[in-house]
Amino acid sequence: MNVTKGSERKSIFESPFYWIYVFSTAGLIGLVLLGPKFLERQVQEERSFQGRERVKQAVAGHVPSTEMSTIEDSWFRLQPLAWVLSVVLIGSWFVVWWQFFRRRRTNY
Q1: Which residue has the higher pLDDT, 90 or 103?
Q2: Which of 28, 34, 40, 16 is nearest to 82 (CA)?
Protein backbone atom coordinates (compact mmCIF):
# COMPACT_ATOMS: atom_id res chain seq x y z
CA MET A 1 0.00 0.00 0.00
CA ASN A 2 1.40 3.33 -1.03
CA VAL A 3 0.71 5.98 1.60
CA THR A 4 1.37 9.57 0.62
CA LYS A 5 2.32 12.22 3.11
CA GLY A 6 -0.98 14.07 2.67
CA SER A 7 -3.09 11.07 3.65
CA GLU A 8 -1.36 10.41 6.97
CA ARG A 9 -3.61 11.14 9.90
CA LYS A 10 -2.07 13.14 12.75
CA SER A 11 -2.88 12.43 16.36
CA ILE A 12 -5.40 14.71 18.02
CA PHE A 13 -2.85 15.35 20.76
CA GLU A 14 -0.56 17.07 18.25
CA SER A 15 -3.13 19.75 17.52
CA PRO A 16 -2.63 23.07 19.34
CA PHE A 17 -6.38 23.63 19.12
CA TYR A 18 -7.00 20.50 21.18
CA TRP A 19 -4.77 21.85 23.95
CA ILE A 20 -6.42 25.26 23.75
CA TYR A 21 -9.75 23.45 24.15
CA VAL A 22 -8.47 21.44 27.15
CA PHE A 23 -7.00 24.45 28.96
CA SER A 24 -10.00 26.70 28.31
CA THR A 25 -12.26 23.95 29.66
CA ALA A 26 -10.07 23.69 32.77
CA GLY A 27 -10.18 27.48 33.10
CA LEU A 28 -13.99 27.55 32.95
CA ILE A 29 -14.25 24.73 35.49
CA GLY A 30 -11.84 26.56 37.79
CA LEU A 31 -13.78 29.79 37.33
CA VAL A 32 -17.04 28.08 38.28
CA LEU A 33 -15.54 26.33 41.30
CA LEU A 34 -13.29 29.11 42.63
CA GLY A 35 -15.13 32.18 41.34
CA PRO A 36 -17.37 32.72 44.39
CA LYS A 37 -14.43 32.52 46.82
CA PHE A 38 -12.42 34.88 44.65
CA LEU A 39 -15.30 37.36 44.52
CA GLU A 40 -15.68 37.29 48.32
CA ARG A 41 -12.00 38.09 48.72
CA GLN A 42 -12.18 40.80 46.07
CA VAL A 43 -15.11 42.47 47.84
CA GLN A 44 -13.16 42.41 51.12
CA GLU A 45 -10.24 44.14 49.39
CA GLU A 46 -12.55 46.73 47.82
CA ARG A 47 -14.27 47.43 51.14
CA SER A 48 -10.90 47.88 52.82
CA PHE A 49 -9.88 50.42 50.19
CA GLN A 50 -13.26 52.17 50.40
CA GLY A 51 -12.98 52.31 54.20
CA ARG A 52 -9.63 54.08 53.91
CA GLU A 53 -11.17 56.52 51.42
CA ARG A 54 -14.04 57.23 53.81
CA VAL A 55 -11.58 57.90 56.65
CA LYS A 56 -9.64 60.32 54.46
CA GLN A 57 -12.87 62.12 53.58
CA ALA A 58 -13.91 62.30 57.25
CA VAL A 59 -10.49 63.63 58.32
CA ALA A 60 -10.72 66.30 55.60
CA GLY A 61 -14.06 67.40 57.08
CA HIS A 62 -16.26 66.05 54.29
CA VAL A 63 -19.19 63.70 54.60
CA PRO A 64 -18.03 60.25 53.40
CA SER A 65 -19.55 59.70 49.98
CA THR A 66 -17.89 56.42 49.02
CA GLU A 67 -20.38 53.57 48.73
CA MET A 68 -19.29 50.24 50.14
CA SER A 69 -19.08 47.33 47.71
CA THR A 70 -21.17 44.18 47.86
CA ILE A 71 -20.81 40.93 45.94
CA GLU A 72 -23.57 42.05 43.56
CA ASP A 73 -22.06 45.50 43.13
CA SER A 74 -18.28 45.36 42.98
CA TRP A 75 -15.70 46.91 40.68
CA PHE A 76 -14.31 43.59 39.50
CA ARG A 77 -16.40 41.13 37.49
CA LEU A 78 -15.63 37.59 36.36
CA GLN A 79 -18.25 37.51 33.58
CA PRO A 80 -15.94 38.94 30.87
CA LEU A 81 -13.37 36.27 31.63
CA ALA A 82 -16.08 33.59 31.49
CA TRP A 83 -17.30 34.92 28.12
CA VAL A 84 -13.80 34.98 26.64
CA LEU A 85 -13.07 31.45 27.86
CA SER A 86 -16.42 30.26 26.48
CA VAL A 87 -15.76 31.76 23.05
CA VAL A 88 -12.25 30.27 22.97
CA LEU A 89 -13.62 26.88 24.08
CA ILE A 90 -16.33 26.83 21.39
CA GLY A 91 -13.97 28.04 18.68
CA SER A 92 -11.22 25.57 19.49
CA TRP A 93 -13.68 22.68 19.76
CA PHE A 94 -15.09 23.57 16.34
CA VAL A 95 -11.59 23.53 14.82
CA VAL A 96 -10.76 20.20 16.51
CA TRP A 97 -14.04 18.73 15.29
CA TRP A 98 -13.41 20.05 11.78
CA GLN A 99 -9.90 18.62 11.64
CA PHE A 100 -10.49 15.24 13.28
CA PHE A 101 -14.14 14.19 13.55
CA ARG A 102 -16.15 15.44 10.57
CA ARG A 103 -16.97 13.03 7.79
CA ARG A 104 -14.86 13.58 4.75
CA ARG A 105 -16.01 12.90 1.25
CA THR A 106 -14.21 10.15 -0.51
CA ASN A 107 -13.63 10.71 -4.19
CA TYR A 108 -13.09 7.32 -5.84
Answers
A1: 90
A2: 28
